[in-house]
Structure to design on (175 residues):
């Protein structure tokens, strides 16, 4: 590489590894250590929604540095939604409504991630997610009856209360 960062013909380019990405985030001044519990990024980090996996999981492309983007799964912090592969029909119906609700609100749109930290499953992070108009997605799901407050630990069954029905996901009237 030359002093101005131009690559000479035939010169190999160094691979952009995880260490370089971490360094870029640190240089941006966004990373902090959360009392030894692990690395966290306060945010905000702009991201584009590539896919709504289910009611509380998104696949996003986040811009972490000039010319650097990362595609990752994001678990919505603060909410649990029904599972698409649940053991009862009522939960599966609610899961589809939750997924469709999220798709209608932010599918393919820009979002803002904050309070980003590693999730318990490899390759996934947990974050607060807000729409471009600053609406908290977890709060919207809870307000629509398609999610319940969740701070980790054991999930409450969506099947236990019988055939709970939620408002139509198409209305999208919740926060």
């Amino acid at each position: 590489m030359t002093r101005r960062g131009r690559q000479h013909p035939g010169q190999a380019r160094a691979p952009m590894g995880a260490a370089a990405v971490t360094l870029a985030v640190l240089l941006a001044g966004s990373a902090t250590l959360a009392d030894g519990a692990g690395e966290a990024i306060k945010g905000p980090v702009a991201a584009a929604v590539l896919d709504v996996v289910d009611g509380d999981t998104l696949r996003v492309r986040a811009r972490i540095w000039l010319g650097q983007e990362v595609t990752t799964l994001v678990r919505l912090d603060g909410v649990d939604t029904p599972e698409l592969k649940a053991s009862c029909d009522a939960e599966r119906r609610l899961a589809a409504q939750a997924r469709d609700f999220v798709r209608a609100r932010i599918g393919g749109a820009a979002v803002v991630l904050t309070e980003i930290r590693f999730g318990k499953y490899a390759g996934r992070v947990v974050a607060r997610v807000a729409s471009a108009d600053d609406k908290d997605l977890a709060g919207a799901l809870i307000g629509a009856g398609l999610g319940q407050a969740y701070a980790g630990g054991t999930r409450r069954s969506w099947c236990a209360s019988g055939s709970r029905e939620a408002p139509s996901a198409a209305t999208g009237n919740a926060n």
Notes: The chain has one domain: 41-175.
